[in-house]
C-alpha cells in the first residue's frame, strides 16, 4: 500500500508527524521543568508550554481532519494503517471535544498550581494549596462534563477513557469491589506472618553512589543509554520521547532501597518506550497502548521481576561493591517484600498499594460528581485511610491528600491505571511462564533477556496497533483477569 | 496609551508574544541538545527543531504583518511602543526577505557541512571540507545578494546588519584599518615586556571542584541562580531565555584557568539577559540590542573586570579553599594578562584577539564579493596570519581556516561583533569611571555591585528600546569610539 493509493491517509500521516514533533518539545519542556529548571523560570516556561499546548490542540482539531479521516477510510489501507487511522480518529475526537480556551485555562492553572504545590507540600500548607486546587478542579470538572456529553458517558468515565480507552466506572467498581473484599484481610494475614521477622539496619549511601548503582541496574535491565538518561526529580517519573527516554528518581541517603526500586520501576516504563515499533515512530499507532499497560510494564519490572529473589540475587554484588552493603539475601528479600501500611502511595509495598488507589478512585469519583468538595478532601482522606489501612492523617496534608502530583496538575482518572497495571503485569507473567517456564529460574540462569524479549514481542513492539483487549488476548489468551494478581499476592506473601 | 487606542499594535504585541513562546522552546531544545541529550536522541530532536523553526518562520512572515505594522504606525503610540514597532518591522523584514526555498536549502547544506566538518576538522581534511564550504558559500552569497537588493546596501553590509543593525563595511574598514595601524606593534612591545616573566605550574583541579568554584564566582558577579543554571558542554555558550539563562563551560583538569574565565565571560552574557527589561519580556524591544553589545557585556565581565587585579584578588581565597591553589596574586595576574600570538581565536588573549577578527573580516568581505575563491582561502589565511601575528599556517587547515564553526554553518558577518564588543566594553568602562570613579578601586572596596548597577541602568534594562547609537550616546556621551579600547590595552599592557 503506498502513498499514491491513498493520498488522504498520507496527508494524515504527515499531519500527525508534525504533531509528534511538537509533542517532542512538550515532553522536553515537562522533563526540564521537573529536573533542571530553576524556580524563577517557571512563569515564562508555563506561558511557553501553554502556547505549545494551544498549538498542538489546534493541530489535533484542524478543520480538515474530520473529512480527511473519512476519505482515508474509504480507500485501500493495510491492517496496520487501519489501526493507525483508528488511533488518529481517537486522538482527533479526544482533542476536538474540548474548546481550546478551556485547554489553555487548564494548562495555565495546572502550571500555577503545581509550581506552588512544590513548596506548599513541603510546608504542609493546605490553606495555600486549597484555592489553587479548587480552581483547577472546577476546570477539570468542566472538561469532564464536556467530554461526557460528547461521548454520551458519565463525566468520570470520560476521564478514565483518556488514559484507559474503554474503561468504565462500572467495570472498576466491580474489579475494585472484589479487591476490597479480600485485600484488607490479606494485609492482616501477611502482617501477622511477618511479625516475627528480625529488624536490621540499612547502610547509608550517598546520592552519587546510589546514582552509580542505579545506572548499573539499568544496564542489567538493558536500558539503552544512547536513547535515554537518568536524573533526579522530587517526584520520580519517566518522560521524554521514545528515542530519548528521560527517567528520574530521588535518593534518600539514609535508605537507598526505595530510590533503587524507583529506578527499576521507571526503567520498566522506559523499556516499553524504547521498545515501541520503530516503523511507527511519530504516528499514533506507534504510541504505548494505554496508561494501565504502561504501568503494567513498570510494575512487571519492579514487582514481578525486581522484588523477586532471582533479581535480588543478581544485584547483590553491586550493592556490596558500590554501596558497601552487607545486607544478606534474606534481609534484602525481607526489605522488598515487607508489608507495612503507610502514608505514602509511592512508597507503598505491593500488597497495600491498591488500598491507596481504592481511596483515590473513590475520592475522584466523588470530586467529579460534586459529592465531595475540595475543602472536605482532607477529612475524606483520613477517614478512608483509617478504614483501609488503619492510619489517621488528620492535619498531615503533606503526607495525605497533598502527596501526589496528579491532582496538582489537574489530572483526574489516572490513578486506577496503577492497580489495573499491577493486574495486567501478573497476567503477563502467568502467560509468559506458560510459554517459557518459571521466570525466577530463567533469571537465575542468566536469561533475563528472554523475559524482556517476551515483553518486547508481545507488548512493546505492538505499540497501539492492537486494541487493549486484542493485545491481551494475543499475549495472554484472555482479556483482563484480576485473578492472576490475587494469586500472585497470595503466592508471594502467604 | 492602552490597547483600545491602537488595536493593531495590540494585535502585533500578541503575535510577537506567541513567537517568543516558541523561541523559548527553541532555546530549550538547543541548550538540551548541547548539554543533556544522548547521541541517539539527535535524529528525532533534529526533526522536531526543524518543524519548530518552520513554524516560527511562518509566524514571522504571517501575511497580516505588513499591513498591521503600517496600520499600527498610523495610530497613537508611546515612544517605547514606537521602538517596539520598529523592532517588529525589522524582524519581519529580516524574515521575509529570503525565500523559504533558499532558507531550507541553506539549512540543509549547513547541517551537512557542519556534520562533516566535525570529523574533517580533526582530520585536517581540507579537500573534504572545501566542496561543502563552496556549496554553502554560494548559498550564503545568494542570501546576501537578495538581502542587499531588498535593503539597497552592499551584500556584505546586508550580512553585517543581521547581527549589528546599521553597521557597514565602510565603518568597519575605518575602525579596523586604524586598529591594524597600531596593534601589531603593540603586540611586539607587550611581548618584549613580558619576556622576562618567570614560568610556574598551574595546579590540577577536578571538574567538580571547578564547577563549585564557578558557582562561587557567579555568585560574586551576582548571577541570579533562581533564573539560571551552569552546566557543561563541549563548546561554552550562554543560552536559554532571559528568565532562565543557561550558561555552560568545559573543564580542563590540568588547567582550571581557562574554564574559570570562560564562566566569567558567559556570566557577562547572562547578566545582560537577566537584566533585560521585565516589562518588555516577550517583545522585540525587550531583547538584547545587538550581538556586538552582547559581546561587549561578556567582554566587560571577562576583560575589563575579570582579568583586572581587584577581581583576581577577590577570587583568590576561593581558588585556595576550593582548588587548593597556591598561585600568588602576581602569578594569577601573569596568567590572565599574558600575551602570546597563537593559532586559535577562542584561546587568544585580549591583545592578539582582534588580529583573528581582522583576518576573518577581510576574508569574509573577499569571499562575499567574489574576490576570494574558497579554494584560495588557506593561502589567504596563512599570509594574513604571517603579516598579523607572524604565524605560518601552511597545510594546517585544522588550526587555520577550518577552526571556527561559523562558516561551517554558513554564518557570515558575525565575526566583527567580537572586536566591536571589546571596543564597546572599553568605552563603557571609561564612561562608568567618569561617573563612579576608578573601577578597580570600587571592586577593591567591595563595590562590584555599583559596577553591575551601572551596566544594568545604562545597557541591560534598555533592551532594544534605543538604537545602538542612541544607547551609546546616552550611556557614554558618544557613539562607538575605538580610542577607548586602544587606551585600555596600552594602559593594561605597557
Mean pLDDT of chain A comes to 95
Helix fraction bin of chain A: 55-70%
Which CATH-level-2 architecture of the largest domain in chain A? Answer: Orthogonal Bundle
SSE ordering of chain A? HHHHHHHHHEEEHHHHHHHHHHH
Strand order of the largest sheet of chain A: 1-3-2
The CATH topology of the largest domain in chain A comes to Neurolysin, domain 3
Chain pair with largest interface: A-B, 36 and 36 residues
Total number of domains of chain A = 2
C-alpha Rg of chain A, in Å?
A: 22 Å
Shape of chain A: globular
The N- to C-terminal Cα distance of chain A equals 55 Å
Please state roughly what percent of the residues of chain A sit in beta strands, choosing from under 5%, 5-15%, 15-25%, 25-35%, 35-45% or over 45%. under 5%
Q: Helix count of chain A, per DSSP?
A: 20
Quick one: CATH class of the largest domain in chain A?
Answer: Mainly Alpha
Question: Class by helix and strand content of chain A?
Answer: mainly alpha
Largest sheet of chain A: 3 strands, mixed
Low-confidence stretches of chain A: none
* Multimerization state: homodimer
Number of strand segments of chain A: 3
Keywords:
494 residues; 20 helices; homodimer; Neurolysin, domain 3; 65% helix; 3-stranded mixed β-sheet; mainly alpha
Describe what this molecule looks like in 3D.
- Chains A, B: InterPro entries: Peptidase_M32_Taq.
- Chains A, B: Broad specificity carboxypetidase that releases amino acids sequentially from the C-terminus, including neutral, aromatic, polar and basic residues.
- Chains A, B: This is Metal-dependent carboxypeptidase.
- Chains A, B: Zn(2+) binds at residues 265, 269, 295.
- Two copies of one chain form a homodimer.
- Chain A has helices spanning 7-35, 42-60, 64-73, 79-97, 100-122, 126-151, 155-163, 169-194, 207-220, 256-275, 291-306, 309-323, 329-337, 353-369, 377-389, 416-436, 439-444, 448-458, 468-476, 483-493; strands spanning 228-232, 238-241, 244-249.
- By secondary structure, the first copy, chain A, is mostly helical.
- Chain A has two domains: 3-150, no CATH class; 151-494, Neurolysin, domain 3 (Orthogonal Bundle).
- The longest helix of chain A has 29 residues, at 7-35.
- Chain A is globular, with a radius of gyration of 22 Å.
- The model of chain A has no long low-confidence stretch (mean pLDDT 95).
- Chains A and B meet through helix 1 and helix 2 of A and helix 1 and helix 2 of B.
Amino acid at each position: 500500500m503506498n502513498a499514491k493509493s491513498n493520498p488522504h491517509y498520507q496527508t494524515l500521516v504527515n499531519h500527525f508527524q508534525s504533531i509528534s514533533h511538537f509533542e517532542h518539545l512538550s515532553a522536553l519542556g515537562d522533563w526540564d521543568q521537573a529536573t533542571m529548571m530553576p524556580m524563577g523560570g517557571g512563569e515564562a516556561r508555563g506561558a511557553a508550554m501553554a502556547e505549545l499546548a494551544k498549538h498542538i490542540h489546534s493541530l489535533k482539531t484542524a478543520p480538515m481532519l474530520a473529512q480527511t479521516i473519512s476519505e482515508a477510510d474509504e480507500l485501500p489501507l493495510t491492517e496496520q494503517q487501519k489501526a493507525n487511522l483508528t488511533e488518529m480518529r481517537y486522538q482527533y475526537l479526544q482533542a476536538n471535544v474540548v474548546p481550546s480556551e478551556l485547554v489553555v485555562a487548564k494548562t495555565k492553572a495546572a502550571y500555577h498550581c503545581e509550581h506552588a504545590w512544590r513548596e506548599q507540600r513541603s510546608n504542609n500548607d493546605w490553606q495555600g494549596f486549597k484555592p489553587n486546587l479548587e480552581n483547577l478542579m472546577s476546570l477539570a470538572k468542566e472538561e469532564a462534563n464536556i467530554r461526557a456529553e460528547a461521548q454520551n458517558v458519565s463525566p468520570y468515565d470520560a476521564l478514565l477513557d483518556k488514559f484507559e480507552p474503554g474503561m468504565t466506572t462500572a467495570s472498576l467498581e466491580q474489579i475494585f469491589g472484589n479487591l476490597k473484599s479480600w485485600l484488607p484481610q490479606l494485609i492482616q494475614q501477611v502482617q501477622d506472618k511477618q511479625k516475627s521477622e528480625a529488624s536490621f539496619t540499612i547502610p547509608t549511601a550517598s546520592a552519587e553512589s546510589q546514582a552509580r548503582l542505579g545506572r548499573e541496574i539499568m544496564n542489567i535491565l538493558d536500558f539503552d543509554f544512547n536513547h535515554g538518561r537518568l536524573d533526579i526529580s522530587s517526584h520520580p517519573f519517566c518522560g521524554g520521547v521514545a528515542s530519548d527516554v528521560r527517567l528520574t528518581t530521588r535518593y534518600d541517603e539514609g535508605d537507598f532501597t526505595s530510590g533503587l526500586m524507583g529506578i527499576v520501576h521507571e526503567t520498566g516504563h522506559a523499556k516499553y518506550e524504547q521498545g515501541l515499533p520503530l516503523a511507527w515512530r511519530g504516528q499514533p499507532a506507534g504510541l504505548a497502548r494505554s496508561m494501565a499497560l504502561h504501568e503494567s510494564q513498570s510494575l512487571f519490572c519492579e514487582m514481578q521481576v525486581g522484588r523477586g529473589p532471582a533479581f535480588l540475587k543478581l544485584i547483590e554484588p553491586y550493592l556490596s561493591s558500590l554501596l558497601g552493603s552487607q545486607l544478606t539475601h534474606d534481609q534484602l528479600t525481607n526489605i522488598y517484600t515487607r508489608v507495612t501500611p503507610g502514608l505514602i502511595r509511592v512508597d507503598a509495598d505491593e500488597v497495600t498499594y491498591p488500598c491507596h488507589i481504592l481511596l483515590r478512585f473513590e475520592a475522584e469519583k466523588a470530586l467529579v460528581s460534586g459529592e465531595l468538595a475540595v475543602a472536605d478532601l482532607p477529612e475524606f482522606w483520613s477517614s478512608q485511610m483509617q478504614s483501609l489501612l488503619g492510619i489517621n492523617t488528620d492535619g498531615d496534608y503533606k503526607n495525605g491528600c497533598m502527596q501526589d502530583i496528579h491532582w496538582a496538575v489537574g489530572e483526574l482518572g489516572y490513578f486506577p491505571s496503577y492497580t489495573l497495571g499491577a493486574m495486567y503485569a501478573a497476567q503477563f507473567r502467568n502467560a509468559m511462564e506458560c510459554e517459557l517456564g518459571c521466570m525466577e529460574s530463567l533469571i537465575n540462569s542468566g536469561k533475563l533477556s528472554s523475559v524482556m524479549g517476551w515483553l518486547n514481542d508481545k507488548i512493546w513492539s505492538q505499540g497501539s496497533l492492537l486494541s487493549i483487549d486484542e493485545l491481551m488476548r494475543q499475549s495472554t489468551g484472555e482479556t483482563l483477569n484480576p485473578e492472576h494478581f490475587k494469586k500472585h499476592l497470595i503466592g508471594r506473601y502467604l
